[in-house]
Batch of 2 targets.
Target 1
Amino acid sequence: MTAVAATEPRRMRASLTLSVGIVLVGLHVVVALLTLVWTPYDPAGMAGGRLEGPSLAHWAGTDRLGRDLFTQIMIGSRIALTVGAGAVGIGALIGVTLGILAAFATRFLDDVLAAAFDILIAFPTLLLAMLVVAATDSASLFSAILALGLAISAIVGRLTRILAKRVLEMDYITAARTAGTSWAGIVFIHLLPNIWPTLLVNFALQFGLAVIAEASLSYLGLGAPPPNASWGRLLQEAQGTVYTAPFGAIAPGLALVTLVIGMNMLADGLRDIGDPTRRRSR
Amino acid sequence: MTHLFKGLTLAAALVLVPGAAVAQGADPDAVIRIGSLYEPQNLDNTAGAGQGINEAFNGNVYEALFQLQDEGEVTEQLVTDYEISEDGLTYTFSLQPDVTFHSGDPLTAEDVVYSIERVTAETSQSSRKSSLATIESVEAIDELTVEVTLSERSISLPYNLSYVWIVNDAAVDITASEDGTGPYRLDDWRRGSSLSLVPYENYWGEAPSNGGVVFNYFTEATALNNALLTGAVDIITSVQSPDSLAQFADNPSFTVTEGASTTKELMAYNDRIEPFNNVKVRQAIARAINDEQLLEAIWGDYGTLIGSFVPPTDPWYVDLTDVNAYDPESARELLAEAGYPDGFSFTLDTPNYDPHPIVAQFIQNELAEVGIDVEINIITANEWYTKIYQAQDFEATLQEHVNHRDIVFYGNPDFYWGYDNPEVIELIASAESSATVEERNEKLRQANIIIAEEAASDWLYLYPQIVVSAANVTGYPINGLNSQFYAYDIVKTN
Amino acid sequence: MLFILLRLLPGDPASSLISVGADPEQIAAARRQVGSDLPLFEQFIHFLSSLVRLDLGTSFVSRAPVLEEVLTRLTLTIPLTLLSFALAIAVAVPLGIVAAVKADKWYGAAISVVSQLGIAIPVFWVGILLVTLFAVNLRLLPSGGFPPQGWGDPVAALRALTLPIATIAIVMAASLLRYVRSATLDVLGSDYLRTARALGAGFSESLVRHGIRNGAVPVVSILGIELATALLGAVVIERVFALPGLGSMLLLAIEQRDYPNVQGVLFISTLLVLLIGFFADLAQRFIDPRLRDPHGSVQK
C-alpha cells in the first residue's frame, strides 16, 4: 500500500521536527527559569565599556551604557515566553469560546460576531495597545500582553467559527443531533477534537506572532517599557548603532527567531503526528 | 571639559569649510534635496506648526523685520533703518521698498502691523508671544513706516521681532498655503513625505544660488541616514547618534560639520514639591550623576558638558561645569543633611523617543548608588505636554529644550518646573528693560550662576549640532539656531 | 464606541499645538480651537452630527480636510497592499502545494524550512536587511521615501515601492505558505481524495479537481484576514521606508491625539475591511457550495 509507505517517512520527519522544536523551546524555557535565580552580570549595572564587540567576557558584547547584552537577551527569553503564553492564553480563551458560540448561534448573532471579529482584526493592534495602556493607567508588560491577547482573540474567533461551521455541516453531526446528543456533547465529543489540530497550528503561529508583534510595538516605541529587556526593545535600541556594533542588532533577533521557529516546529510536529484524520488513514 | 574644548575648536575649524569651494562648477539650477526628521504639522508658525516650520520657512519663504543669522547676530532684513526714542519706548522702522509678496501684492506698513498683531493675538500659538508682551501698540505711519510703542524698555525687541513672519494682510489661510516675501515660494507639500520650494522670480534681494529646495521628511533616523548614504538626499539637518556618523566621517564623499547647538538635555524636577523643593536634595542628585560618562555613552566624542541651562553661544554664558560636579560621596552627605539618609523614591516621566529612555536608565543606575530609587514611566510627547507642561503633575521628567536664549524660563515661577527664586525672577525681569546690552548680559549672568548653584534642574549635556552633506554640496548653515535652515546660499557642484 | 475609547487616552489634542514657552492663555486658546474644553457629551454630539452628514471634519493639527488626506494616502496604501498581496499569493500558493505534495523530497522540506524562517523574523528586520543589502550596499533601489509627484512619476513611484512590497510579501508569503501547505495536507489525507483515486482518477487530476476546491476554503478565509491586516499593518514598514501611507497617518494622529484624523482613518479602513470580508465570504461560498446556505443546510 503506497499510503502506508508514504506515511512512514513523514512520521519520522514529524518526530524530528517535534524534537527540534522541543529542544529550541526547552532551551528558552530553561534560560528563562535560570534568569529568575542567576544571570552572568547584573542586568542594570555597567559591566564593560561602551558598545564592546562579542568577547569571552561578553558573549554578545555590550550596549551603549556598557551593560552585558547576553544577560539582557537571557532575560528577554523570560519576557518573550511571558508575552507569548499570556497573549495566546487570553486570545484562545476568548476566541474559541466566541467562535463556537457564533457557529451555533442564530443567524443574527452569528452575523454580529462575524462582523465584530472582522472589525477587531482590522483594528490596529497599535491602537489597541494604546487603549489598553490608557485603561491600565501606564505602559507595562501586562498592557502589551492584554492588547496582543485581544488582537489574537479576534483571529482565533474568526478561524474557530469557520472551522466549526464546516464540521457542523457534516452528516455525522446531523446524525448525532438527531440521536439527541446534547449541545455540550457535540462541542466536546465531535467539534473540538475535529478542529483542535488546526487551531493548535494557529496557536503556535500566534505565539510566534505575539512575540514578533511585541518587537514591532517596541520598534514604534509602544512596547514593554524599560527596564524590561524585551528583544524588541533591544533591537530598537541597537538599530541606531547598527553600523558600529552590528552584533547588538543581530543577537536579540537570533534569539527571537530561534524561539519562534522552535514554537512553530513543535506545533508542526504535534500536528503531523497527532492529526486524527491522518492517524485514521493508516 | 575635554568635550567642551573639543566641541568649540571643531566648530571654529569647520565654519570655514562650507562656502570655500563655491566658485568652481556650481550648478545654479540644481535642486537641493534636504533630509529632515521634523515635518511641520501645518504651515503657520502661530498655529502650532512645530519646529519643522522654522526649518523650512524661516528666511526661505517668510522674512521678518530682522533676521537671526546663523552665527547668532541679529541684522536688518525687511527694515532698512530704525530709530529708538530717548526713553527706549518707541521704535520707528523704515521698510525696504519694492518688496512684493509671492501673490504679487506689494509690502506695506499695514502688512507689518497685521503680522505683529497676528503673533500677539489671543489665539496665537507662537512660542515668542510672551516676549512680545511689552508691545502696547503698532501703527502704520505711512506706506513704508511703522511705529511700535512699548509699555517698558525691551532691549531684545529686534531679536524678538526676528521671530515674527511678515505675512500679507490679504492672505486668507496660511495653515495650508503661504504668502511671504522670501526668496522661495511653496511649490507643493505632500504631507508625511516632502515639501518643495522653488525660487520666487520677483524676489527683492539676491536670488538663491540654487534652483530650489525639497525637504524630504523621515520619521526614523536610520532611514534618514540611508537616504544620504544612497544619494537620495544631499544633506541631513541633524544627526541623532554618533554611531551613524561613523559611516560618514571616514568617507571622502561626505562632509561632516559640528556647529553650535542650543539643545539641552535635562532632568527637570517639580521644584514645588517634596523632596525637590529642598536645594540639598537637588544638589545631591546633580552630584550623584556622572554627566561625562552619560555624554560618552550617548554621544561618544561629540557633545558638550554644561553646568547650567545656558549654552556657550549665549552672551551670558559662564563655565559652571564645576558647580555640583560629579561627587557621589558628597551626594550621600547632602542627602543625609537634607533628612534622607536612606534615600527616597520618585517617578521619572520619560518621553518615549531617543535618547530619553536610555538616559533614564543611566540615571536610574547612578541614583541607585546613593540610595535613591527611580521608577521610569514612559510617556508620549503629547502626554508630556498634557501631564507635565500643562497640569504640572509630575515629580521629575526628562526633556530636550531646543530654544535659543531661553534662560527666561527660570524667571517664571509658573513654568512647568516651578522654580521660584525672587532674586532670579527680579534679575531676569529687569534684564530685559536694561539700557545697555552689557547691563542685560551681566544680570542674566548672575541669574545663570544662581540657578546653577541651587541646582534648579539637572542639566545633563548639550547636544552636538551635526550636519552631514554630500561632499559636492556647500554653503549651508551649520549652527541651526532656533532650528532655522537658510537654504538660499547652498550650492551643488557637478 | 470608538469615540469613548479615544477619549480614554491620556493626553489632549491641544497639546500638539503648543510648544515650550506657551502661556496659560495660549493653552486655553488651543483647547478652545480643538474643542477639548467642552464637556464630553457636547463633543460627542458634535461628533455624531458630523458623522451623520458623512463629514469627516478637518484635522486639529494640520487643519486640512480629513477625507482629502485619507484619499491621498490611499493612493499609496492600496497599491502597496494589493501588490504585496498579489506577490505573496503568487509565491505562496504554488510553493505551499509543492511543500505538501512533495514533503518527502528535499525541496519540499527545504520550502517548509525557509518558510519557517520567514515567519519567525520581525517584518521591520526584514525591511532593514533588504535596505542594507539592496539600497545601501548595491545601490539598486531607493532606501525609502516616495516621490513628491506621487504616481505622476510612475517609474519612480514603483521603484520606491519595490523594497516595501518585497518586504511585506516575504513575511506574508511565509505565513500564507504554511496555511496552503496545511490545507493541502488536510486534503491529501481526506476520504474523498482517496475515494476519487480508488475510482481510477490520476493523482494530479484528483488533486486539482477536488483538492483545490476543498483546500481553498480555509485558505481564502486566511487571505481575507491577511489582506485586512496588511492594510493598516503596513505602519511599521511605512516607518522603515519613510512612506506617507495610511498607517503612518494613523500612528501620527494617535500620538498627537488628532481625533478627527484617527476617526477618519478608522472609519475608512473599517469600510474597506468589511468590503474585503464580504468578498472573502462570497469567494468561499462560490468555491464550496455547502457554504452557500450555511443556516439552512440541515433541512436540505
Target 2
Amino acid sequence: MSSSIQPTALADKLSQMDIFHSIPGDILLHLAAQCRIELFEPNAVVFHKDEPGQALYLILEGSARVHDGDFIVANMKAGTCFGEMALLDEGPRSMSVSVNEVSRLARIDRDVFFDVLGDYPGVMQKIVGMLTRRLRFQTDKTLEQLRRREEELSKQVAARTAELMQQKEEAEQLRAKAEAEKKEAEKQRLRAEQSERAEQQFLANMSHEIRTPMNAVMGMTNLLLQKNPREDQLRYLHSIRQSSEALLVILNDILDISKIQAGRLELEFTGLRADAILEQVRTTLQFRAEEKGLSLEVIFDPNIPPVLTGDPVRLQQVLLNLAGNAVKFTEKGQVSMEARLMKKQANRARIYFEVRDTGIGMTAQQLDVVFESFRQASGDTTRKYGGTGLGLTISKQLVEQFGGSLQVSSSLGEGSVFWFEIELEIGKASDAKPEEPLPDARDALRGLRILLAEDNAFNRIVAVETLEMLIPEVRVHTAENGREAVEAFRTHRFDVVLMDVTMPVMDGLEATQAIRAFDGPAGQIPVIAFTASVTKKEVRRCLNNGMNACVPKPFKESELLQALLTAVAPGQVSAAAVLPEETEIPVDAGDSDRLAFLKNLTGNNPARIQKYLKLYLESVRAGVPRIEAALKAGDREELRRVVHTVKPQFRMLGMEEMAELAQTIETQAVEAIDLDMLPENVDRLLAEIRDSVQVFEAYLEPAD
Amino acid sequence: MADQKKKIFVVDDDKMFCTMLSDHLEDQGSYAVTSFGTGEECLEQLDAAPDAIILDYYLDSNVPGAKNGLEILQIIHKKSPELKVIMLSSQEHYGIALQTIASGAVYYVIKDLKSFQEIDSILEEL
C-alpha cells in the first residue's frame, strides 16, 4: 500500500496544504520521499489524549475525528492535515484522534521535518511563524469549543434545573391547592357551625318570643278565672287555658326535637322518686281518662328503692307521653302503667317501665314508622287525635339517653304495649326534691316587699296580680328594666327581687351584679331570676351572676311560691315587717326639668337645645291647628296621624305624661274605643302643648 | 379618614327626631348621616350604598299617601337584600315589629329616650 502513492503525487498533495504553500517543490519532494504511509482500521487511535503525536499527518483516504473524551470536537476529511502542533513540540493535550473508517495517512515525523527543513532556515522560520499563528487560532477555537460545550452543559443544567423547578412548583401548587382545599373545608365547617349557632340562637329567641306572650295569655287567663266569670265566659277561659297549654306542649316538643337533632339534649341527674313520677302522671291524666270512661292503673313494685338518681323531669316526660298517647288512642277499657324492679346489685337498680292500653293498636307497617319524627299512624290520626307527632321520637331518644331502648308491640284493634328498661343509681333520701310548699306558705310570706323588674307590660301585670293574689299584704314595686330596678333598690327597702333576665337598657344579670355591689345586708338580698329562657346554661348563667334561684316563665304559682319561700326564710319576713315603712325618695321628674334629657343628650349644648326646641315648636305649631280641625271634623285618621307625629317629640323632651296621653288618644282614635273621652283627652293634650310652647318660648326668648 | 365613616340613612318624617338622631350619630365621628323626610326620597338615593338605614314606620304625617316604612322596607329589601335596615316606631306593637322583622329588618327600635343608646349598640354590632 505504501507504494501506491508516488513521492511526486504526495509532494503535490503537500503543496496544497497551507503550511507548505510557499515551499519550493524540490524541498517538498524531498519531504514526500521521507513520508511513511500508514493504514488504520476503523476506530483505531492515531494518538491518545495526553500523548501528543510526534509527527504531522496528512489524511490521504478516509476520515478522522478529534475527541475530547466522548465529545467530538472536529471531523476531518481526506486532504486534511493534523498534528502540526507536534512540529512545535506542542499539542492539544486534552484531545485524542481516531479514524472513522479504513484510512490511509501520510506521516511526516518531527525529526524528518526538521532534518529536511534544517537546511532552509528562512522557510523554517516562515512555517514556524504560521504554525504559531495557527496554534493560537486553534487554541482559541478549542477554547471557543470548550466554551460552547460549557454553554451547552450549562444550558442542559439550566433546562434540568428548570424542569426540577417546574416539578417543585407543581408540587408547591399541589400543596397550595391542598392547603386551599383544607382552608375551604375549614371555612365550610365554620360556616356550618355558625349557621348551627344561628339556628340555636334562633330557637332560643323563638322560645323566648313565644313564651313571653304565652306567659301573658296564660297568666291573664288564670287571673280572669279568679274573677267570677259567667258560665259561658268560664267555658271560654277554660278553652283558652287548654289551648295555650297545648301550644306550650308543642313548643316544648319542637325545642326538644331540635335539641336532640343538634345532639344537645342532656339529662340532669338528681334525686328521682319513681313512685312520685308515676303518681304525678296518673294525676295529670286522671281527668282525661275519667272523661272517656277509662280506668287508669298504676302498678308499682314496692321493691324499687325509694330514691334513685336520674332526670325526673325527662323520665316523667317519657311516661306522660306514653300514657298520654295511650289515653288518647283508647276508647274503652283501661290504661295501665307499671314499674318493676328487675335487678338490684351494689348501688344500681334495673327498672322496667311499661305502659299498656286496650286502644286502637297499630298494624305492622304503622309499627315500623312509629318512632319517626312528624309521623303518626296515618294522616287521619292527626286529624282525629291531634298532636305534633314528635312525642314518641322524643321519648325514644330520651330513653336512649337513659341508656335504655323504647320497645313496642301492638296488634290492631287490641291495644299496644310500650316498655323500656333502664339502670339507675340508687340515691340517698336527701337527694329527692323537696315537697310542694305547705298551704301556710302564703302566711309565711305575708307582707313581703317585692321588687319586680320585667320589661313586658303584660307580664308585669300578670306577675303583680298573681303575687297580690297569692301573698297577703304583699307590696310589689315594679321596674321596667335593670337600671330602674337598681334605682328603686337604692331608694326603697325590699325583701326579695324578682328579676327578668332579658331586659333593655340594663339586663337582669347586670342589675343583679349592681345590687350585689351594695354594702351590708342590702347587697345580700335574694334575687330570683324570672326568665323565659329555661335552658340549663341559662340557669347556670343566672346563678353565676349572683342570682339565688330561677323561676321559668310562664311560671306556675306553686313554683313561684316555692322559690320565694326558699329565698326568704320565714323569720326574715317577720323581722323585715318591723322595719320602718319604705321611705320614698322623690325622683325629680317635674316640669321644671323638662329639658333634662335634652341637656343630657346634647351635653348641655345651648345651640343644639335651641335647634331642637325650634323644631319642636315648628312641629307643634303646625300640629295644633291640624289636631283642632281633625277633632272638629271627626276625622280620626288625621287625628291619629298628627298625634302620632308629635308623640315621639314629647318623649324626646322628657314629657312622658304627654306622650302617654298622646298614646291614649291614638289608641282611642284607631280602635274607636271610649270615643266619648276623646275630645276631653285631646283638649288636655292641646293645653299641655300650649303650656310647653310657653315654657320653651320663654327659654328661647333671651337667645332670640 | 372621611371615607371610612359608615354611611347611614335616617328616614323619618319627624323632623325633630330625625335631626336629633342625625346629630347624635354625627357627633360620634364614625358615621356620615343623610336624612330623608319620606321613604321615596331615600329610595332615590339607594345607589349611594349606605351601610345601614334607620327607617321610621309611619311616614305619612306631612305627605298624606306617602308610603309607610313597611312598604319602603320591602322595596329596599327587594333591591338590596343585604342592606341592614333598622326600623323605628313610636309604638310598641308586637304585630308591626314581627311584620318588619319578617320583611327583612334587622332590628325594631321603639322611639323613646333609650332609642339612641339602642341604635348605637345596634350600629356597633352591624
